[in-house]
Amino acid sequence: MHTRTDIPVTPAPGLAPPSRFTTASPALGSWLPGLESLAPHTEEHLWLHGALLGPFSGDIVEYLALARTTGGPVLDLGSGAGRLTVPFARHGFTVEAVDRDAPSLARLHDWADRIGPHVRSRITTTHADLVHLRLRRRYRLILLAGAMIAAIPPHSRPGMLREIAAHLGADGALALDYTAHDAAGLAEDPHRAWAFQVPRFEGITEWVVARQLFDLATMSEQVTYFIERSGKTRVRRSIVTTDKWIVNQEDLLQELRAAGLRVTDQRQQRLDERTRSVLLVCHPTE
Q: Is-above-0.85 flag for pTM?
């Protein structure tokens, strides 16, 4: 589930915003828009990637609590640089991390190596796209955390969920979260924009304007990040665009049932008047 961060969300001075730019209202707090996993993960965008993941930082508590009831092994789908994988291994769980971005998996290895062999030995990594997921063993807990389900095209979701269900132990669980949008609100205003400062600690000031564009006809969302980095001697500007899919809960529930999974727990947290964070815990159908 999302937790609040203290990243400032304010106008970005000196950065040319997109048309229709508006700043976040106080009610939105520090919830940041966008796909929570930028791809490809370049060194240039590591700080922005970390800022976008910030709102998800508290979900590890819930996922660890679930893992203590299911046991391992754990499968972390869309693991990135090990945000969940490495802490799970530190808590004694055997974890397989799957991600399409090889540099992220390399950073995961580096992090685990720095902690020590007792952690590194519990982790295996697989370089693969979730759209073409092919698993080799059974798991007690499978995670699609950080809204990764929204990165899967709707036509590919049923096959991925069937693959997950086929490799889930009888008492195992699938846990996934996603952002639920109010369809009427999106139809009324399919554009949103935020400005926020990315925390940097090496003499660089980084501002980002993020523009969201929702398309209900295709159930898709495009997020464009207009980035300005100011150092001691130069200013650099860049643009990053990423795409994801709007998750329709009824469609998702139907796909889970068709895959042989039943929702046993559902938790929600309202992010603003039009947006909720939803966590689903699923078990195999008996």
A: no
